[in-house]
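Entry for the shared binder. Reason: the reviewer on the internal report wants the predicted structure included alongside the sequence.
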Amino acid sequence: MTPRAILTPRTEPVGTDGFTLRERSWKREADKHVAALNALLAERGAPIRFAFPAPVAVPFEGPGPDEAYAGAAPLDDELADVLALSTALLQAARAGTDDVADERELLLRRAALLDRLALAAPHDATAQSRAIREAHILMTFDVVHHCGRGPFAADSIEADGAGGPRAYVRQEYAAWHAPIAPGEGI
């Protein structure tokens, strides 16, 4: 008697539907869970429904670093500006005259500064994670305060994908750095 070949994900035959037997059973289970979730959502009157597989994040088509940071101040000047903005915002908060626009500018410029520092040190994991963290802080602020000038919103599916938070910062920095057309900012 010959030993039976063990099926692995690489050796398992694929059916006419494009799934292996194992994947088909996973899909059946996922469909059961999605159906139960949709029934619960319908019962509660929610306007959304889920489908399997879940939608895949669309790549972010924002400006690249060269385009976004064209004309930006050198890193050391930008750091000095961010520190000055931070100090001014702290003094304004103590005096009770702080402004949401000033806070957003600080968050945007700080996120852009950390993105530029991470671009300058691509193998520094700490710089990369700090840039992503600051990008998420800016995105959260923009969602809460309904801010943002770029074509993709902070809570869009494009900004949620890999590289999306930092691409969002670049989009917003390029939009902030560009002059506002007459009558647009009213």
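Summary line for the report: The mean pLDDT is 81.
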